[in-house]
């Protein structure tokens, strides 16, 4: 019995040394010992070997043709006017202007395309991979191609669930505990530059520990454009860990609704040391009250930049969807940030319709790693005569171009809500303008 206890104590001390000495302390000082980089290099080599082995094994199997980059259907990018004009040209008896029967084919074609594969629904499913990454979320049949691939897959399951998962849970617990305790202690100090410095130190240390807990490898580009105090940082939204990714390189003031439970404890503790902007549920529905509090925050150039995700929901790392205009109505300088995850090492997208927060975090902690690129774009301001909607679209386009993402005009709220009548009316107005536009004086030709 004493021998077993001694072995347990030795294992505990080894575990404590690994967690605190090799991970937590270097993370607190922003130092990397190179273990994560080495782990990623070994992982890349392993995945490359597995991909080649799978490709060799598939040569003897019948495979379906691969999908195009845009999905099942190759869609035209032309406007309604252009496509209807081409249809009418193919029917010489149809005149431009007025209703013609061939116009029906355009709407039938678009309707079938949307039923088979629309641009919105596919943005809320996991990004498809070119090859298997030895995680179970992709084609399970791949691992039976050869004995060696099966052995590597089984070894990967053991490493991810029996080694990485306990380690990551331990680091997450340490990081969150440090955040709560540290912000409570700092919050008891009088307001001063020292308090602000200690608050920033506590926050960034916590996020660095949590990032190490996800084996995160983050590449920051154009750091000279990092958000400054008194501004608003807007970014595309893929996952709740977007906050950890960005706050690992700088401190931000968070905006959100007041919650209960463990999240509520964290919110109440961190607001003591840093002026985050939390709203009650009733306040969130009052746009004027929200706008006023945000304006008051950015008016104080000593406060941290506000971090906002204008899409309002998580998108699957392939696209950027419509930005809500509220963040762009309050004035101030906008600091756009583009975030792009590498899906080869793990699926960072949170499909909240399929997984709750606990299930999602379990998937994150059992992935190989989180690898992503972050681009800080030059600050942008609203131009003279530019309304909030056009400003939001301009910022969205800049983020999409930098991150290599598809720029979509659809509202991410369609994930849970029906299409707004305004979208239908917009298409009806476009078609109406074709019928009663400049060509309305021409006489229509009826069917013979």
Structure in words:
The protein has 448 residues and is an alpha/beta fold. A seven-stranded mixed β-sheet has the order 1-8-7-2-5-3-4. The chain has a two-stranded parallel sheet with strand order 6-9. Strand 3, helix 8 and strand 4 form a beta-alpha-beta unit.
Structure, briefly:
With 448 residues, this protein is of the alpha/beta class. The protein contains 13 helices and nine strands. A seven-stranded mixed beta sheet has the order 1-8-7-2-5-3-4. A two-stranded parallel sheet has the order 6-9.
Shape annotation: globular
The description of the largest β-sheet is:
7 strands, mixed
Instruction: Kindly state the number of beta strands.
Output: 9
Percent helix among the residues?
A: 40-55%
Terminal Cα separation, in Å? Answer: 100 Å
The sequence of SSEs as H and E is HHHHHHEEHEHEHHEEEHEHEH
Short key terms for the protein model shown above:
448 residues; alpha/beta; seven-stranded mixed β-sheet; two-stranded parallel sheet; 13 helices; 9% strand; globular
What is the strand and helix layout of this fold?
Elements: H1 2-28, H2 35-58, H3 80-89, H4 103-116, H5 147-187, H6 193-213, E1 216-221, E2 232-235, H7 242-247, E3 253-257, H8 261-270, E4 277-279, H9 281-284, H10 287-299, E5 306-308, E6 319-320, E7 334-341, H11 357-365, E8 370-376, H12 388-403, E9 406-407, H13 421-435
Parallel strand pairs: 1-8, 2-5, 2-7, 3-4, 3-5, 6-9
Antiparallel strand pairs: 7-8
